[in-house]
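Dear H.,

Thanks for agreeing to be a second pair of eyes. The structure we're designing against is below in token form, covering all 713 positions.
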């Protein structure tokens, strides 16, 4: 039996949402409106927040399983995340009503089924309305499959449940307690696989039988392809089962020691994916390693959890929302693996908000900026920096400093520069000169006196202080030339802040240092031996966070108090946004407090570790591993959504809406301007801030119709 840690790993308009296409599923259409335009809130249960992915795009959830049917691809992820798409480009969050991990999904005729953590079962006949069931068990349901008449879910401790409707489930007796990880339906029976090489079959009469697999390796998934079953598992295990599921033979087409997580395709075109594995069998030929041997368009070296065959292409997905399409342009050509979107997935270690934009820093010299917390751009840094890890960033509108591994410091000055733009009108070229700033765009490599890793960054009246490993303290008056100072400490100094002209550095072993001039440093009693990882000067006080959930506060840098955070997880960053303090940390931890005394764990969309937090009076942004950037509004949106265009053609209404991303509006309509009928709720999730809604027009051919939008919190 494995531990739970293996289960949770650390601009077109939205026209495609609403098009009528042959792939449209009838169960998605009600009230005359194409409900793929309906976007319910995916806020965590009991949380006022509505978290959205800014990076990676389109989302960064770990795609543990997915299914394709009725013209729709459905993905399920950690913390109750569900995403759907019709075209594999635009992905839309759905409200699950749970924060439990979702592990498996399938279509049961026209009904969508999802299973997961602690007996979670979801079913839906419409994407706007997921019904949440709890089977009264702590067993995780890791696999679900369906025939035309029966659905079966399997999981921990030999758990097996069956349902003829998907709404009422009965636990069955399997006769064993091995944990099951997958199940498949085919040839009038169900086959389940799991840990220790367990394979069991369920006959049509409901009886379960244990079969001989010939392996003790954990089996992760099973699929019925063509006329036989395929099972894949740890250490490169691949088994082929007979039609009856009774006889299993090791498949020796390729050799790997990596875990294999999913198999999909046809008899002639099969794909197996896993931990840094994408293996492809084309026709009766041998297997190709699509990561290492495909020289034309290889798959990236990544961990993939799920795979599906979509009639003309392979579609695979995995950790942090990585998605690939495998397409052959003709029968003799190799498979081309493509990503519709290629976001940065480098770890982000810090984020800062200036009055007009965000700036984040991370692995491989990554510097990213964003004006709105939604759209992020990668900035150019000196070539030598791309081998560095930027651990901290700080500064003001006068300049920025990013510090990192090997003594690396980058400086970005705020220099006004002229930018010439051109515009051609009626064949005449017009030129315009505008003034822009180089801040966060141009980065210069600074000269430093040592090669110790650096992280803490603070500035006061043009004087910079940077702290790092072995008690390193560097100072500079221009951000470019740096001098070493004696801190009197050997601690790794990872946090820096300025309060009332006082420099403060924090680090491991409970270290807190203060200085009035940046040169002479004095130790202060923190009252803890935990690593005080970050400190910020916010709301006229110092707030520090760190190891074992430690939180420290001070109004003068000398006297510190330690409120109880309610968590033992490592806290990595803190800020004051709106009217509350927010601390973020490992495993997706987000704490909120209005008074620094009582803290509430809000959680987010992910269990990935978060290392930076920043924001505005109405937005929080947090960043972390594998390029994670999440955002949420802090208060109800008040900015209106505009109707850019309204038209009727070929029996359809067309409404083009525009506004700020993350704003939601309920559509209302009337033919008299007096009696208004409430319709669907829409959310602007496309990064262009636009949404195109196509709907069937009134069957009575109403000569005129008025629309209005009511803002939704």
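And this is the sequence the design step returned. I haven't edited it by hand at all.
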């Amino acid at each position: 039996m494995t531990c739970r840690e293996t289960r949770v790993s650390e601009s077109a308009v939205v026209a495609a949402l609403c098009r009528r296409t042959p792939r449209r599923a009838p169960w998605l259409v009600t009230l005359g409106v194409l409900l793929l335009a309906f976007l319910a809130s995916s806020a965590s249960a009991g949380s006022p927040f509505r978290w959205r992915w800014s990076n990676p795009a389109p989302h960064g959830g770990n795609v543990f399983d997915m299914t394709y049917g009725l013209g729709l691809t459905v993905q399920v992820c950690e913390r109750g995340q569900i995403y759907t798409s019709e075209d594999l480009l635009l992905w839309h969050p759905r409200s699950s009503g749970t924060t439990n991990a979702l592990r498996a999904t399938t279509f049961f005729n026209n009904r969508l089924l999802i299973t997961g953590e602690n007996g979670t079962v979801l079913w839906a006949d419409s994407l706007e309305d997921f019904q949440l069931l709890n089977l009264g068990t702590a067993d995780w349901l890791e696999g679900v499959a369906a025939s035309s008449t029966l659905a079966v879910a399997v999981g921990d401790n030999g758990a097996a449940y069956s349902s003829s409707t998907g709404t009422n489930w009965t636990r069955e007796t399997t006769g064993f307690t091995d944990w099951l990880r997958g199940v498949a339906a085919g040839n009038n029976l169900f086959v389940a696989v799991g840990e220790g090489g367990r394979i069991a079959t369920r006959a049509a009469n409901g009886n379960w039988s244990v079969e001989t697999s010939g392996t003790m390796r954990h089996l992760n998934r099973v699929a019925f392809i063509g006329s036989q079953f395929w099972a894949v598992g740890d250490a490169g295990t691949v088994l082929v089962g007979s039609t009856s599921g009774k006889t299993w033979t090791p498949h020796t087409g390729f050799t790997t020691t990596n875990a294999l997580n999913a198999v999909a395709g046809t008899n002639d075109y099969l794909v197996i994916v896993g931990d840094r594995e994408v293996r492809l069998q084309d026709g009766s030929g041998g297997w190709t390693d699509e990561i290492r041997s495909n020289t034309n368009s290889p798959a990236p070296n990544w961990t993939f959890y799920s795979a599906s065959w979509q009639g003309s292409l392979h579609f695979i997905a995995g950790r942090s929302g990585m998605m690939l399409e495998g397409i052959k342009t003709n029968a003799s050509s190799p498979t081309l693996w493509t990503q519709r979107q290629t976001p940065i997935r480098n770890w982000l270690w810090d984020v800062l908000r200036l009055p007009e934009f965000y700036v984040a820093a991370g692995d491989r010299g990554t510097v990213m900026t964003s004006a709105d917390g939604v759209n992020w751009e990668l900035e150019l840094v000196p070539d030598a920096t791309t081998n560095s890890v930027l651990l901290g960033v700080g500064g003001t509108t006068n300049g920025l400093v990013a510090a990192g591994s090997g003594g690396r410091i980058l400086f970005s000055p705020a220099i006004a520069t002229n930018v010439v733009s051109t515009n051609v009108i009626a064949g005449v070229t017009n030129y315009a000169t505008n003034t822009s700033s180089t801040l966060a765009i141009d980065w210069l490599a600074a000269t430093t006196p040592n090669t110790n890793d650096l992280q803490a960054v603070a500035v006061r009246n043009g004087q910079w202080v940077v702290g790092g490993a072995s008690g390193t303290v560097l100072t500079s008056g221009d951000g470019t030339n740096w001098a070493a100072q004696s801190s009197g400490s050997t601690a790794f100094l990872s946090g820096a802040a300025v309060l009332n002209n006082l420099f403060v550095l924090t680090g491991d072993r409970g270290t807190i240092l203060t200085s009035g001039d940046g040169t002479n440093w004095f130790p202060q009693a923190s009252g803890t031996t935990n690593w005080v990882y970050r400190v910020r000067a916010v709301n006229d006080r110092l707030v520090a966070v760190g190891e074992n959930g430690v939180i420290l506060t001070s109004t003068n840098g000398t006297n510190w108090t330690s409120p109880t955070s309610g968590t033992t997880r490592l806290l990595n960053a803190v800020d004051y946004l709106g009217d509350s303090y927010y601390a973020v940390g490992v495993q997706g931890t987000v704490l909120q407090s209005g008074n620094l005394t009582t803290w509430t764990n809000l959680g987010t969309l992910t269990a990935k570790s978060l290392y930076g937090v920043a924001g505005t009076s109405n937005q929080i942004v947090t960043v972390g591993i594998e390029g994670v950037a999440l955002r949420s509004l802090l208060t109800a949106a008040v900015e209106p959504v505009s109707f850019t265009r309204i038209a009727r053609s070929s029996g359809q209404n067309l409404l083009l809406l525009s506004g700020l991303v993350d704003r939601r509006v309920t559509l209302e309509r009337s033919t008299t301007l007096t009696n208004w009928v409430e319709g669907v709720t829409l959310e602007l999730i496309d990064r262009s801030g636009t949404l195109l809604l196509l709907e069937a027009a009134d069957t009575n051919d109403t000569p005129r119709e008025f629309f209005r939008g009511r803002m939704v919190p």
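Two observations from my side: The radius of gyration is 28 Å. Residues 15-18 form the longest helix (4 residues).

Warmly,
E.
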